[in-house]
Amino acid sequence: MKAQLKLKEGATPTFHKAYTMPYKKEEVEKELLSMEKSGILQKVQHSEWASPIVLAQRNDKKLRICVDYKVTLNKVLNTDHYPLPLSEDIFTELTGSSVFSVLDLTGAYQQLLLDDKAREYMTINTHHGLFQPTRLQFGVSSGPSVFQCVMDQILSGLNNVNDVVIKGYSLYDYYESLVKVLERLKSYNVKVNLEKCQFFCEEIRFLGHVINKEGIQPLPDTVEAITKAPTPTSVKQLQAYLGPFKLLWQVYT
Predict the structure, then answer these.
(1) Strand ranges in the chain using DSSP code E only, listed in sequence order
(2) What is the pTM of this model?
(3) How many helices (H) and strands (E) does the chain have?
(4) Any idea where the Reverse transcriptase domain is (predicted)?
(5) Order of strands across the sheet with 41-44?
(6) Are 131 and 44 in contact (CB under 8 A)?
(7) Deepest of 19, 127, 150, 212, by most Cβ within 10 A of its Cβ?
(8) How far apart are CA 245 and CA 117, in angstroms?
(9) Mind listing the pLDDT tens digit for each residue in 100-144?
């Protein structure tokens, strides 16, 4: 199953020159070659599309190559072609459950293979030449909806599964769902980060809330963030400020 990117009607290719990185050339080249060797990138000679790379530093101080799709691809991407799950719907489905799992699928985002057109759209331009990603990358505006679409197809037909949370009204109910989900992910070669997953939990923290068989309550940090938020001074800030209140009202009324 390969991820696809949908463009807006009338979209035309954009080829952006590479950003200058005079002091990091050797490090960038080393990382590019490593990504090419791992099959994450594929070197190409020509593309009508090209986006520049930018650099970030990981927690371990190592270099991370990111792509500035804001100046190219994101301008013409259709970001509304697949709906993302609503937080209030997720909470409603989790209500009443007594056993939970939370799966870490962060790495799975970049495990999704791209079709040929998406690879060309996501071509990157570097001082070392042009490369095409073979997998979905962060920074693409429609990435979350593309990922959600593929994961929904992979997990289609399975009960007690919502996004990355597996629930059960009983231990047997939960265990049966957990096994089916893991088997389905394995059949599509989608890997989870076991070190960050939570299994057989009577209580989980998810989307700023504590969830258990007694119900759903906001985390103290969530409440504090709302009460200490600065007074909004624009319509955009007001919309962001009211967002958490809307969620709390929908969940607790």
Answers:
(1) 41-44, 51-57, 63-67, 99-102, 124-126, 129-133, 161-162, 165-168, 198-201, 203-206, 209-212, 215-218
(2) 0.71
(3) 7, 12
(4) 60-211
(5) 41-44, 129-133, 124-126, 51-57, 63-67
(6) yes
(7) 150
(8) 41
(9) 999 988 777 788 899 999 999 999 999 999 999 999 998 999 888
